Amino acid sequence: MTDYRIDALQFVNWSEKSLEKLRVGKLDAVHVTVAYHENFRKTIDSITEWNSLFRKHADRIFQGLTAEDIEKAKQSGRTAIFFGFQNPTPIEDDIGLLEVWHRLGVRFMQLSYNNQSLLATGYKEHDDTGVTNMGREVIKEMNRLGMVIDLSHSGERSTLETIELSGRPVAITHANPEFWHPIKRNKSDKVLKALAESGGILGLSLYPFHLKDGSSCELTDFCSMVARLVDLIGIDHIGIGSDLCQDQPASALHWMRNGRWKFSENTDEDFPAMPSWFPDNSGFNFLADGLNKSGFSGEETAKILGNNWYRYMKHSFLPNER
Amino acid sequence: MTDYRIDALQFVNWSEKSLEKLRVGKLDAVHVTVAYHENFRKTIDSITEWNSLFRKHADRIFQGLTAEDIEKAKQSGRTAIFFGFQNPTPIEDDIGLLEVWHRLGVRFMQLSYNNQSLLATGYKEHDDTGVTNMGREVIKEMNRLGMVIDLSHSGERSTLETIELSGRPVAITHANPEFWHPIKRNKSDKVLKALAESGGILGLSLYPFHLKDGSSCELTDFCSMVARLVDLIGIDHIGIGSDLCQDQPASALHWMRNGRWKFSENTDEDFPAMPSWFPDNSGFNFLADGLNKSGFSGEETAKILGNNWYRYMKHSFLPNER
C-alpha cells in the first residue's frame, strides 16, 4: 500500500521557503485555514488569493477537492491543499451557503471557534449550551454534502452532542489529550473515546500551547503520549493536525483571538516558538524517527503520519447523495 | 448519433407548470440567466435559490457543469441547467472572481449588457469604444477557464474586436440576423460571418422584439430566415437561444432594463406576448415541424435544435489548462 503524509491543520504564510519545507517533509496533503472570523464576501477574497498562489506555484501545490487528489499529488510530487474554516462565519446565517462553499472546495468547518457561534459553543465560553437549532440543520447539510465537521475548538457538551447527532464520523483536526496536558483546549478521555467509537479521528497538535512543557516539549514525551493514546482509543483514529503557523505576523494571532468581537488590546504578544523538532513541515521527518524509536512499527507510524487521514478523507469527502 | 435539444438562453420563472413544458419540448440542456445587474454577493443569493430548486425538482433538473451532463440529462429524462451572466457585474472589478464563478458552474458571461461595462460596450450606447484594458484580460482568463464569451447585447465594434481577440470561438447566445429584422440588437452580416468563420455560434431568438412582425411573426417566415442564414454562414453555426421569459412579472423586465443605473420610471410596460408557435418550451416541437416542412432534413433540423450547441459546449466548457 502507498503511504501518504497528511497534515490536518496548518495556517502557514506561504513563500518559496515554506513551500520548500512541504517537499522536505514529503507532505501529500494539507488542510489549510481560509477563514477565522471572515464573513462570506471576505472569505471569497481569501479564495482568490489562494487561486493566485496555485497559479504561481503550480509546480508545488494545487487545490484538492477529493481524496483522489491526494494520490494525484503523490504521483506528481506536489501537495494537495484542502480548504477549511475554523469558525462558521463564512456561512453567516444562511444554510444555503454551505453548498456554495462545498462547490468552492471547502471540506472542513468548525461548528464553533473559541466563543459561542450560531451553531454551537466554543471552549472558552463559561457555559456550553450544546448544539443550537441552526446547528442541527447545519450538521445534516454538512453530512449530505461531504463537508467534515471539525470540533477542535468546541466545548465538551457541544462536541459530545455533535458526535451523537452527526450521521457521519466527525473530526477534531488539531488538539491533544487532556490526560497529557490538562488545559481546556485539549480533549478529555470521554470525548476521545466517543470520537473513536463513532469512527472519527483526532489530529495531534504541535502548537506549543497544546503541548506539555510548551516550546520545550521533548519529542520522546510526545511519542509516549501517542502510545498512551493508542492504548485508550486504538491506532486507527489518530493523525497529525500540527496547527503550524509558520512565518505569520503577530497581527494574525490578534485576528485569530479577537476577530471583530471585541476591541483588541495593543499587546506585544506573538506566536510561541515551535519545538526544535517541529520547526516547519520538515518536522514530519523528526516525527517519523521519533515514533519509530519509541517502538511504533513502520505501519503504525505511517498510519499516524497520514494513512489514517487518507482513509478518513476518502469516505468523508464523498457526498451522501448526488 | 444521439440528438440533443438545447436552448442557449432562457429566463423562465420556474414552477411545476413551466418545468413540465421542458419535458414536452424534450430539452436536454438550457442556459439560464442568473444575473443581469447583480453584484457578486447578490448573485450568490441567486445561486442558493437555484440550489433549492434543484433539491425540490431533482426529478426534472440538475446543475450542468460539463457537456457530459447533457448526456446524463438525456439518459435520465431530465434537463441540465447551465448558469450564465448577461452582464459582468458579478465579477465587479476583480478578475479573480471569474475563477470563483467558474468553479460555481458559471459557463457563460456577456462582456456587456445594453450599456458600457468595465469590459466592453453595449449595443445601446451612442459610441462603441471596443474592448477595454480589463476586457482584454478577462477574455484571456475566460479562455483559460472554459467560460463562454457571450456577445448578444454588445455593440458591433466590441463584438468584432472580441471575436478577433479571443483565442477560442465565442457565442452570441440570443439574437437574430439584421437582414431579416433590422434593429440594432440583431446582428449584421459582417458580425455573423466573422462569428461563423471563427468557429463561433449564434442562438436564434424567439423574443418578439427580435422577430419580424413581433408577436405576430409567422413560423414559416422564421424558417425562411433560417434558410437564408444557412446560405450566409452555413448550417453548423446556428442554434436556438429563445430568450424565453415565461411567467416573469413585469418587475423582472424593469430590472433587466434599468437595474440600478437609472431611476426607473413607473411604467405599465410588461413582457410582450410570445408567438403562438413558441409559447413555452413546447415550442421546440413546433420549430421541429416548421423546419422540416420548410425543407430542412432531419439531420439539419437536429443540428439547429441542439446538436450544434452540444458540439460547441463539448469544446468550450473544457479548461485550456488544469
Number of E-state strands of chain A: 9
Helical proportion of chain A, percent range: 25-40%
Distance between the ends of chain A: 30 Å
Oligomer type? homodimer
From the spread of the alpha carbons, the general shape of chain A counts as: globular
| Helix segment tally of chain A | 11
Biggest β-sheet of chain A, characterized?
Answer: 6 strands, parallel
- The whole-number mean of residue pLDDT values of chain A reads 96
The gyration radius over C-alpha positions of chain A equals 18 Å
Most extensive chain interface and residues per partner: A-B, 16 and 16 residues
Structural classification of chain A: alpha/beta
Low-confidence stretches of chain A: none
In what range is the share of β-strand residues of chain A? Answer: 5-15%
Give, in order, the helices and strands of chain A: EHEHEHEHEHEHEHEHEHHH
Characterise this structure.
Two copies of one chain form a homodimer. In chain A, 40% of the residues lie in helices and 13% in strands. The radius of gyration of chain A is 18 Å and the shape is globular. With 322 residues, the first copy, chain A, is an alpha/beta fold. In chain A, strands 1, 2, 3, 4, 5 and 6 form a six-stranded parallel beta sheet that branches. Chain A has helices at residues 16-24, 40-56, 68-76, 97-103, 133-145, 156-165, 189-197, 219-233, 250-258, 283-293, 298-316; strands at 6-10, 29-35, 61-63, 79-85, 106-110, 148-150, 171-175, 201-204, 238-240. Chain A is built from eleven helices and nine strands. At the A-B interface, helix 2 and helix 4 of A face helix 2 and helix 4 of B.
